[in-house]
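Lecture notes, part 5. Sequence design as translation. It can be helpful to think of inverse folding as translation between two languages: the language of shapes and the language of residues. The source text, in structure tokens, appears below.
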């Protein structure tokens, strides 16, 4: 791993500790993240940039909650816009993947039901310097919907359904549970299972321990299995994750995560501002 982010981490940490007007509530937030990616046993490397803006339909009260989980615990309905770009380079070859999505998360008032919907668009561009060739695809748009239940405070279980995809071919189930502990401590548990065309199974499990309202430390793994009946070999690989997030004020946070797996590793720096 090339730790090219360290100067940025230091300077960003200094920026986030600058004085801000503390706010017990917020209604919008802006997040940005950058990941440096290395591919194992290869000269290929890349990066990923992600931006997201989110607006809550009502102010979110952060009192008595971990700051990172306040909106989730209060079932705060919102609209969001996400933009992303990944770039990979190797021996004169380059691949750019662009992503953008617009969506809404809505908790039905006075009920346990959750609904989400949106549109996701993706395109890629490949180029080969030696052959002076470039290939660019058009945006490919896909609608998606989500449905779930929140039977108790801090728990949400949901599934996502994608346009033109039969549930018998591809389905998923996801869960997130924030459990209050003594004092300001809390535990966040996340898990998901995804089956893609009956040949790829992906299991994700992660947990974050909140030492107080401001600081969390977390770890997890992502296991992907391929069906040997459809692929030349049956294969399984696991990526391991560690992460941390610190709120320096009620409306400014910095987070770091590191993923290491069989095929590569990545270091991610992210920051969030709330208004």
């Amino acid at each position: 791993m090339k730790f090219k982010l360290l100067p940025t981490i230091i300077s960003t940490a200094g920026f986030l500790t600058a004085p801000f007007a503390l706010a017990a509530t917020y209604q919008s937030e802006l997040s940005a993240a950058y990941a440096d990616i290395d591919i194992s046993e290869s000269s290929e490397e890349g990066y990923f940039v992600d931006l997201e803006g989110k607006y809550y339909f009502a102010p979110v009260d952060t009192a008595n909650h971990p700051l990172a989980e306040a909106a989730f615990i209060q079932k705060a309905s919102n609209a969001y816009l996400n933009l992303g770009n990944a770039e990979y380079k190797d021996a004169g070859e380059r691949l750019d993947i662009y992503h953008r999505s617009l969506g809404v998360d809505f908790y039905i008032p006075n009920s346990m039901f959750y609904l989400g919907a949106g549109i996701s668009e993706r395109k890629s561009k490949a180029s080969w310097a030696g052959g002076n060739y470039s290939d660019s695809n058009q945006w490919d748009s896909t609608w998606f919907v989500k449905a779930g239940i929140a039977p108790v405070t801090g728990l949400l279980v949901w599934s996502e359904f994608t346009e033109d995809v039969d549930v018998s071919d591809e389905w998923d189930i996801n869960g997130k549970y924030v459990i209050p502990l003594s004092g300001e401590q809390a535990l966040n548990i996340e898990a998901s299972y995804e089956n893609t065309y009956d040949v790829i199974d992906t299991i994700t499990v992660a947990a974050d321990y909140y030492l107080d309202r401001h600081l969390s430390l977390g770890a997890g793994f992502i296991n992907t299995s391929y069906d040997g009946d459809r692929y030349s070999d049956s294969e399984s690989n696991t990526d391991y994750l560690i992460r941390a997030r610190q709120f320096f004020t009620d409306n400014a946070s910095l987070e770091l995560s590191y993923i290491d797996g069989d095929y590569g590793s990545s270091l991610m720096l992210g920051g969030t501002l709330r208004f």
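The translated text above is only one of many valid answers, since several sequences can fold into similar shapes. The chain has one domain: 6-274.
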